[in-house]
TrEMBL record:
A Pfam family reported for this protein in Swiss-Prot or TrEMBL: PAP2
Keyword Transmembrane among UniProt keywords: yes
Membrane-traversing stretches: 20-45, 57-77, 107-128, 135-153, 159-178, 199-221
Keyword RNA-binding: no
Key words, A-Z: Membrane, Transmembrane, Transmembrane helix
InterPro entries referenced in this protein's UniProt entry, alphabetically: PAP2/HPO (IPR000326), PAP2/HPO_sf (IPR036938)
The protein, known as: Phosphatidic acid phosphatase type 2/haloperoxidase domain-containing protein
Annotated organism of origin: Prevotella pectinovora
Domain Phosphatidic acid phosphatase type 2/haloperoxidase: 58-174
Length: 226
């Protein structure tokens, strides 16, 4: 019963008759597309922390988000559960829309794309404490999740579990960061229109948001061209 509902929802959001949307989803789902965003987040961290210990603590927690969310998924859960991706299921041939030569030989449950992007969104949103930043990062994570359904790489349940697991990992890594940080450095509240409450400058947040916007624009233009 659950599998039927999962498939029915997937069919509602999987694929389209638009070559533009096909190209857009392929570009947005690629990890290479978002490398400049990760660099912008690194710049945000370096610019707003005054010593290497603080910087390395955040970087290690960010790496931990990816390792624990996506790593546990890819190397433990997926092989253990062994759920076939919709795009690889012979029984769904002709039912699931596929884009070009998109494929992936590993398993479907659960989505490491969803887990990774959600864990980073959770961690950095709690770290920075800025509403525009949180909304933008959340939109980025949800769009990445949607591409996995559009391309037939995961069932909706795979994505939902990935989101839940990623959110938990991001929260736990932030609590670890907070505990270590509070032992090493005094907590200072910033009260200024130029800073968030955690001391992150609005201008560096805007740089991250601009980078994200330009990457979405790049994805759109590339899809038009191709």
């Amino acid at each position: 019963m659950t599998g039927n509902i999962d498939l029915a929802i997937l069919q509602m959001v999987n694929g389209s008759e638009s070559s533009f949307l096909d190209g857009l989803m392929v570009t947005l789902t690629s990890g290479f597309t978002w490398i400049p965003l990760y660099i912008a987040l690194l710049y945000l961290v370096i610019s707003n922390n005054d010593n290497m210990t603080k910087i390395m603590l955040i970087i290690l927690c960010g790496i931990g988000c990816v390792m624990f969310s996506g790593g546990i998924c890819d190397f433990i859960i997926k092989p253990m559960i062994g759920r076939t991706r919709p795009i690889n299921d012979d029984m769904l041939d002709g039912i699931i829309y596929t884009v070009g030569d998109m494929s992936n030989k590993d398993f479907s449950f659960f989505s490491s794309h969803a887990a990774n992007t959600t864990s980073l969104t959770m961690f950095f949103s709690l770290l920075v404490r800025n509403r525009k930043f949180t909304v933008a990062m959340t939109a980025w994570a949800l769009i990445n999740c949607y591409t996995r359904l559009y391309l037939g790489m995961h069932y909706p349940f795979d994505v939902l579990v990935g989101i839940a697991w990623g959110a938990l990992v991001g929260l736990l890594l932030y609590l670890v960061y907070l505990k270590v940080y509070d032992r090493m450095f005094p907590d200072v509240e910033f009260i200024s229109s130029q800073y968030t409450s955690k001391g992150y400058t609005i201008i560096t947040i805007d740089i991250v948001l601009l980078t994200m916007s330009l990457l979405f624009l790049y994805a759109i233009l590339r899809s038009f061209i191709s």
